[in-house]
Design brief:
Rossmann fold; 322 residues; globular; five-stranded parallel sheet; Helicase, Ruva Protein, domain 3; 46% helix
């Protein structure tokens, strides 16, 4: 069985239990294949927690959910040294970050030092306690969520920390017909006495994911398309080259991490579509999710009601497609 078939089965399994959120499912799979982390923003009750939990059921890995609160401490994530009186020694007790899939629920409710502990683990893939460094699992994905409704008592993530996330995904409400299907799905699960979605018939081994990642890295991208990718990122730093009006909308542009993220995500997007080459449509499809948390709009743009997605739309419309 090919790696593409294996991942397609995983995506189909998630889609059976997560209705009306196809974009979230796609981005979750892309983040898994691109070896990155996901920041998801949406109102409560939109299956954000359920999505990564179902993903954890479909692969050979363990899942852990951490509810971020104002009284959370860094050691609650990383772990801490426990004193053993029987032999007067200290033993390291691993924290939840040593699992494969982590849900950082409402990450903006914890103070900056806790956010930093998580984001350092995301970037370095290791945790240092005292003088000892502990490596994290090779398969390690963090999905952090933010609630856009309540801002009282929250600690917004600084832009430099947001840059650590591969993508920033917005989750919206489902349609009326989809919500009817959700009612039927949850009613059937309750009738069967299921507190969580049923496990798939076959769990995907981690090695299959690593093999798929290698296949994706080998996907062909032409020099012209690579230049188009770079021009899109560079345009966020100097949009005045394309339109003076856009220059007045921007305060700061995207970092080189944006170029690397678009490269990995566009390759994964093309691979999921069954192609062995990257096209302009792949870059454009993931550009908003990769760039929206990496750019800072000016006060002038915010006063005019310009959103980051509108700014990215304007850039895409002005840069020539090879």
């Amino acid at each position: 069985m090919s790696q593409h078939t294996v991942i397609s089965q995983l995506k189909a399994y998630i889609s059976q239990h997560i209705l009306g959120q196809s974009n979230l499912v796609d981005r979750l799979i892309i983040a898994l294949l691109a070896d990155g982390h996901l920041l998801v923003e949406g109102a409560p009750g939109l299956a954000k927690t359920r999505a990564i939990k179902v993903l954890g059921e479909g692969i050979d890995g363990d899942f852990h959910r951490v509810q971020f609160t104002p009284d959370l401490l860094p050691a609650d994530l990383t772990g801490t040294e426990i004193y053993r009186p029987q032999d007067a020694s200290f033993q390291f007790q691993k924290g939840p970050l040593f699992h494969n899939l982590i849900l950082a629920d409402e990450i903006n409710r914890a103070p900056a030092k806790v956010q930093s502990a998580l984001l350092e683990a995301m970037a370095e893939r290791q945790i240092t306690v005292g003088s000892v460094t502990y490596p994290l699992p090779k398969l390690f994905l963090v999905m952090a969520t933010q609630n856009p409704i309540e801002q009282e008592g929250t600690y917004p993530l600084p832009e430099a920390q947001l840059d650590r996330f591969l993508m920033h995904v917005f989750v919206g409400y489902p349609s009326a017909e989809t919500e009817r299907d959700i009612l039927h799905l949850t009613r059937n699960e309750a009738r069967q006495g299921l507190s969580e979605p049923a496990k798939p018939a076959q769990v995907i081994p981690q090695q299959a994911l690593f093999d798929a990642r290698n296949e994706i890295l080998d996907i062909y991208m032409s020099d012209e398309l690579e230049n188009y990718l770079l021009q899109l990122v560079l345009a966020t730093r100097d949009p005045g080259r394309y339109d003076k009006k856009l220059a007045g909308w921007l305060e700061y542009g995207a970092s080189p991490r944006a170029s690397m993220a678009i490269d990995r995500c566009a390759r994964a997007h093309a691979w999921l579509a069954g192609r062995d080459f990257v096209g302009p449509e792949d870059i454009q499809a993931i550009a908003h999710d990769v760039l929206r948390h990496r750019i800072i709009l000016s006060f002038e743009a915010e006063a005019e009601g310009i959103s980051k997605d509108q700014f990215i739309d304007e850039l895409i419309a002005r840069i020539a497609v090879p």
